[in-house]
Design goal:
Number of strands of chain A: 0
Helix content of chain B: 25-40%
CATH topology of one domain in chain B: Rossmann fold
Structural class of chain B: alpha/beta
Largest sheet of chain B: 6 strands, mixed
Strand order of the largest sheet of chain B: 6-7-8-3-9-10
Number of domains of chain A: 1
CATH architecture of one domain in chain B: 3-Layer(aba) Sandwich
Oligomer: heterodimer
Structural class of chain A: mainly alpha
Order of helices and strands of chain B: EEEHEEHEHHHEHEHEEHH
Number of helices of chain B: 9
Strand content of chain B: 15-25%
Distance between the termini of chain A: 48 Å
Shape of chain B: globular
Chain lengths: 257, 253
């Protein structure tokens, strides 16, 4: 009984370590292929497909996040006479946490799922084998452009997210909470520093790498059939989201000590 | 040209191929026949390095490939082409882009030269003018022909065909057989064809190898196979089912 249980637990641990090892190997192989002049056209296409097409949902998410955050915080801050801090608090929290993390989550849901579904269906219809047969490395051809596109585009999405979040916060603060435009803007100048924004951009580059590598790994290892692709896509989104949240904690510790 | 020496292959505890010895001469058409699940497609995948054997050696053009890394394998694969059972066309690309893929990846040809090569290869498979269509707009037979055009576009020395006539009507099967023979005649390629369509096998083969439960049980010319004394071979080529597979009174074998 106990031995059976230990065997099962041990088996699971070994399986998890194997998966982690394969993901790390894919990451290393991707970095290795970066040296071999990736196809510029593919990268631009993926930037448009994965990055630009994600802009509307990122803007929508961050606009309402900025608005609701201001509704909640302005009410409490005004109660304690600290309305002059509202703008700064929103700017700092947007730049450091909300914009990068929520963009990472949106990317995990939209970009990660798209990458896994696309590569997964290529895998089950033997298109990945066809690439290999035609002497084309699937990591160089499929993973590298998506990796570069995600790492480059997520910071750009975060910049837009920062701006639209602040715009949402500004509108609510001035039109709903009665905070003057000058107070809001002055508060941002006093509280926020450039490191708040650059730290968020650095984080989002890591999140982009996570979403791309997990999305590609899940696609490349998808099992046969529509069910296999569906399961891989779900796994990709869940794993990417978890890794975004976990890595965010450690990145915050490192970047904002 | 292609040589398998004592090759075995398995997944986990399940043996798929057992001690396969096989040789294909330059310019020859070898057809591998056998029931579903007997390991036919596995042999093709071993030949092109998509799978690695658990034991034995695989020689392609004088080079042993079973231990080569992916980069070295890619050098070998540039002289090889493969037609997949379900065509495996890139569904995000047009027919023309599919055929041009290998040329764009591995040659320095200009766009105009590539366009000419695409037209020439599509004409060879009777699909001229289909360059702009997407694979989803094609019938099964047309997809197979595009797959063949894609495989031969890079002028390979070896072409592997995995069930090229599976799921096609008899007329289209005959068309594909004719294309395999034409490809061999015009391009002097060595061909290995996996099929369980006996008519196709008899139409195109120089030699036929019969595989059963992971082992080659008979190999020879079309006449050798037709006149084989092996009851398993005779049962397969005539399509006789085992008596126990029939329900009572339906058949008498």
């Amino acid at each position: 009984m106990l031995i059976n249980l230990l065997e099962k637990v041990g088996g699971k641990v070994i399986y998890c370590l194997e998966i982690n090892g394969q993901v790390v190997l894919l990451f290393i192989e991707t970095l290795f292929h970066l040296r071999r002049r990736p196809n510029f056209g593919h990268i631009v296409y993926q930037m448009a497909h994965l990055g630009v097409d994600s802009l509307p949902i990122v803007l929508l998410t961050l606009l309402f996040t900025g608005m609701v955050f201001t509704v909640q915080s302005a009410h409490e801050f005004i109660k304690y006479g600290a309305q002059s801090s509202v703008g700064g608090v929103i700017a700092v929290s947007m730049g450091r946490e909300l914009a990068p993390v929520l963009t990472g989550v949106v990317a995990a849901g939209r970009i990660g799922a798209a990458i896994t579904a696309e590569i997964g269906s290529m895998k089950v219809t033997e298109q990945i084998d066809a690439l290999r047969v035609m002497a084309t490395n699937p990591v160089a051809y499929l993973v590298v452009p998506r990796f570069i596109a995600c790492v480059c585009m997520l910071p750009i999405l975060v910049i837009f997210g920062d701006i639209i979040g602040l715009v949402g916060g500004y509108l609510v603060a001035t039109l709903y909470a009665g905070i003057s435009s000058f107070t809001f803007m002055h508060s941002i100048k006093v509280f926020a520093v450039i490191n708040d924004v650059t730290g968020g951009l650095v984080k989002s580059m890591f999140f982009g790498a996570i979403v791309a590598i997990i999305g590609c790994y899940k696609g490349l290892t998808a099992n046969e059939g529509a069910e296999g692709v569906g399961r891989a896509t779900t796994g990709s989104v869940v794993t990417s989201m978890i890794l975004v949240f976990v890595s965010n904690y450690f990145l915050s510790l490192i970047l904002y000590r | 040209m292609i040589k398998l020496v004592n090759v075995s292959m398995g997944f986990g505890n399940k043996a798929i191929l057992k001690n396969i010895d096989l040789e294909v001469a330059q310019g020859e058409v070898l057809v591998i026949i056998g029931p579903s699940g007997s390991g036919k497609s596995t042999i093709l995948r071993l030949m092109i390095g998509l799978l690695r054997p658990t034991a034995g050696e695989i020689w392609i053009g004088g080079r042993e490939i079973s231990h080569l890394g992916e980069d070295d394998l890619n050098v070998i694969r540039r002289d090889m082409g493969m037609v997949f059972q379900y065509s495996a066309l890139f569904d995000s690309m047009t027919v023309g882009e599919n055929v041009a893929f290998g040329l764009r990846q591995h040659t320095k040809m200009s766009d105009e030269e590539i366009a000419q090569a695409v037209r020439r290869n599509l004409r060879m498979v009777d699909l001229e003018g289909q360059e702009q269509n997407m694979p989803s707009e094609l019938s099964g037979g047309m997809k197979k022909r595009v797959s063949l055009a894609r495989a031969i576009a890079v002028k390979p020395q070896i072409v592997l065909y995995d069930e090229p006539t599976a799921g096609l009507d008899p007329i289209m099967s005959n068309t594909i057989d004719r294309l395999i023979s034409t490809t061999r005649r015009l391009l002097k390629v060595t061909s290995v064809v996996v099929t369980h369509h006996m008519q196709s096998a008899f139409n195109i083969a120089d030699r036929i190898a019969m595989i059963h439960e992971g082992q080659i049980i008979e190999i020879g010319t079309v006449e050798d196979i037709e006149n084989s004394a092996n009851p398993i071979v005779q049962q397969f080529i005539h399509g006789w089912a085992k008596r126990k597979q029939f329900t009572h009174g339906r058949a008498d074998v």
